[in-house]
Amino acid sequence: MRLLTLLGLLACAACSPMALSDSAVAAPQGPRDPAVRYRNSDGSRIDKPWSEVLAWMWEATVKKLPPPPSTHVNGYDFPVVRDAQGTAPAPAEGLSVTWIGHATALIRLNGHTVLTDPHFSGRASPLSWVGMPRKVPTPYRVEALPHIDVVLISHDHYDHLDEPTVRRLAQQPGGPPVFLVPQGLGAWLAARGIAAEEVAWWQPWKQGRLSAWALPAHHWSGRGLSDRHTSHWAGWAVQVGAERVYYAGDTGYGADFADIGRRMGPFDLALIPVGAYEPRAFMKDQHVNPSEAVRIHQEVRAHHSLGVHWGTFELADEPLDAPLGELSRAAAEAGLAEGVFRLLKHGETWTLKGAVPGAPPPLAP
Question: Keyword set for this entry (predicted)?
């Protein structure tokens, strides 16, 4: 199925980088430009040849990968929470997070509401009728969310930047949120009538009490065959008052995280990807596995972490629910206290500080 999807779309921009000609500079400035190619902090770009991409997809098709989830007898019948916590506005003081699914999380931080990589559509695809289907329904509609103050976009892949969703958010009652995007991505939103503010790595941004910083990630960008690396990719830090939250975006493991911990840590909460990591030889440059996610938690000096980028789209060869067991094992091996690094149900809320009612315990493996 994944191979047929690739051939049908002529690109698998959601998860598989293809090679292209090289040009350019390590940290370019300005709007999206086909002549500009962004890099990782170590100077690398992730470019895999078509032969390697097709070989991976062919092997997955022959071996019928990924296998079905093992923890739920009804296939993709994952628990989904729909309650008042998930759509509650931010109290004046406090910190909580609701996991919507995949990399989409609703953060309430001392009176401010922040949404990461919003995706509420049925597919991670340029087309509504073909492409990577959502395996677990979204627990809440965009229109049911509280007023969003800031949207953090990590990069332009279809599972992180969903056009129908950002269009709906831009039309929310009370005025659009501020869309913060990495360098080069503002023009894509502007072409759709959506104002966005580009922020370079390590550059601060501030509005009122809320401060944000774009931070390095080890990844790549592109939504088609001609725009590889023409916009940057990033993680984000946000702070209101004394509380600070880190969102790693989509990333492979590298030296960036120790640097982020030294320069920006500690964090009260980190949102770290834990899924889409097999086969390791193919995915390691662009997606961390649960053991690496635990290492990131430690290196950025997070007090608590939430696993994201799992359980929603089948982007790789491991079962959709593999992080349930793998993250628990990795956290135990690293000596983390129980409940420090959690996975939530779709739609579930975790309250760390403040008046929003607490969420149930994390899912057991």
Answer: Signal
